[in-house]
Sequence to fold (352 residues):
Amino acid sequence: MKIDTLIVGFGIAGMNYSEQLRRRKKSFVVMAPSEKSASHMAAGIINPTVLKRFKPVWKAEEFLNYALPFYDELEALVQTNVIHLLPIHRILNSIQEQNEWGIAASVPPLDNYLNKELVTAKKHLGIVAPFAYGELIQTARVDNEVLLTLYQKKMIPDQFVEHKLNHQALEIHKEYIKYQDIQADKIVFCEGYQGIKNPYFNYLPLMGSKGEILVIECDTLNEEVIFKGPIFLSPMGEHKFWVGATFDRVDKTTQVTEIGKHWLLSKLNQFLKSPFQILQHKAQIRATVSDRRPLLGRHPRYDNVYVLNGLGTRGVLMSPLLSHWLFEFIEINQKLPPEADIKRFENKYFRN
Ligand SMILES: Cc1cc2nc3c(=O)[nH]c(=O)nc-3n(C[C@H](O)[C@H](O)[C@H](O)COP(=O)(O)OP(=O)(O)OC[C@H]3O[C@@H](n4cnc5c(N)ncnc54)[C@H](O)[C@@H]3O)c2cc1C
Fold:
């Protein structure tokens, strides 16, 4: 089979890159095993701010302006509600935090995202918030698991191959790449944290940060708001809530731990006073990068080998525009933003 692009990996990076190709009528195959990835387990929260530091994320406005209509279009394609525009209610812990919120909400660029008016402490039953809530707007939750499943079934049923690529069996030639019966002009690796095993890109500083989460059921909580206390409590529908997450840079397994569960419950119990039941406990690894910027671009030696990775903690917000940037870089030679371009690590490759 001769195609334009072979995409390796089907988390949100692989899905969003597939969509760039599908829209431009390029031929492609996406290859991934059936196992769940970080994308399936993420809360899917789109939040353009770093709340702890009262800062916008890198290129917040550009990412947000591209992502929101992109997910609307995906929602229309899969004919199911997958993006939920919900405010985040951040629990404030002191008068000082209230003042900091007021200041940040009054000046650009955060005035776009932070509501100056605090939300009263009594607003939500079952939540302890004596110093009221700061409200974040232009935030949302994407139901990644539903979106990935439906996109695969409805939009790319014939382009999807359930298979884990064996890097040793991949042939890279000057004019094409070959894998089993597939001959493609190029290959784009969207492997998330497992990219550390990719011999073409293992020089990149993919660090990895394990996150454990709980899914709980709570009948009395408001489902129209994402709560942010010491951790997130985010509605999933039908009285289920996503609770997370831990950050562990040492343990790189996807095993859940009692320590992780205990930590999550201790944080949750600080602000949730309604009875709840634990339904699930899960863990995955975020593909974080030493300089906290994505990994985008062309292999230093092979012109037809590309990567889209390093989405860190903001993959849902960033991957639509990153996949657009990568597409334009590959197909029409547009420049990548230098902060995201893997050229910044080229010295490491040639030193090895
Ligand atoms: C606990 C937790 C909470 C999070 N919450 C949020 C959030 O609220 N908002 C947000 O924006 N981000 C969040 N994230 C981060 C987000 O999950 C990631 O940024 C994003 O999912 C990364 O997507 P990806 O497609 O790059 O990687 P992944 O989702 O890891 O997908 C990688 C894909 O590549 C496949 N693959 C790997 N190797 C091979 C191979 N050799 N052959 C074939 N396929 C291969 C895998 O099977 C998988 O399909 C969270 C992450 C965690 C762990």
Observations:
- The helical segments are 12-23, 38-41, 60-78, 95-104, 144-155, 258-271, 315-332, 346-351.
- The first helix runs from residue 12 to 23.
- DSSP finds eight helices and 21 strands in the chain.
